[in-house]
Amino acid sequence: MKNTSEWPADDIEIIIQKYGDMLYRLSVIMLKNESDAEDVVQETIIKYYQKAPVFLDSEHQKAWLIKVATNKCRDILRFQTRHIHIDDSFLESVPEQTADYSIIEALTALPEKYRLVMALYYIEEYPIEDIAKIIGRTSSAVKMRLQKGRRLLKEIYEKEYL
Question: What sign does the CA torsion over 134, 79, 30, 20 have?
Fold first, then answer.
């Protein structure tokens, strides 16, 4: 483990440039809130800085960052279930005229366990095996969540937008 006092600021900037947007997109989809998503990205980078983990390769590094960010999202979601607060301001960043708007809005209506695998698979283009490692489930479980997530997404989309 690196001594964090020896880290050049450039290392953190590279991590933010390389993974910041991806972590933000996943967090917005998970949390339905831009400011919470920004907090998750920031807390993920801070944890990366504090832990200074050593990775086998860039995919291992990316998977670690996703795992930390999704765990932080889950912490926020657990807190929100105990303290009800609704904020759909994140949808303001997606123009209503685009086809993506209704799909993203429908995606955010999915339960969290389906939302995460759908976002990792369709938005971040992760293979099923990698998603399974990230969320700590079998490939079969990921396939089932994708299947059910697609079905639920179709139902939501048809009900709300057609």
Answer: negative
Q: Which of 88, 108, 90 is CA-nearest to residue 34?
A: 90
SS3 sequence, 22-58?
Answer: HHHHHHHHHHCCHHHHHHHHHHHHHHHHHHCCCCCCH
Nearest 5°: phi and psi at 94? Answer: -105, 120
Exposure string for 129-150, b = 16+ CB within 10 A, e = fewer: ebbbbbbebeeebbbebbebbe
Residue 154 has pLDDT above 60, yes or no: yes
Residue owning tokens 């969290």: 112
d(CA 61, CA 55): 6
Q: List domains and CATH numbers for the chain.
A: 1-93 (1.10.1740), 96-162 (1.10.10.10)
Q: What is the pTM of this model?
A: 0.63
52-75 pLDDT, tens digit each: 788 888 888 999 999 999 999 999
Q: Provide the pLDDT for residue 137.
A: 92
98-141 pLDDT tens trace: 455 677 777 888 888 898 899 888 888 889 999 998 888 999 99
To the nearest 10°, report the CA torsion of 140, 73, 104, 59: -60
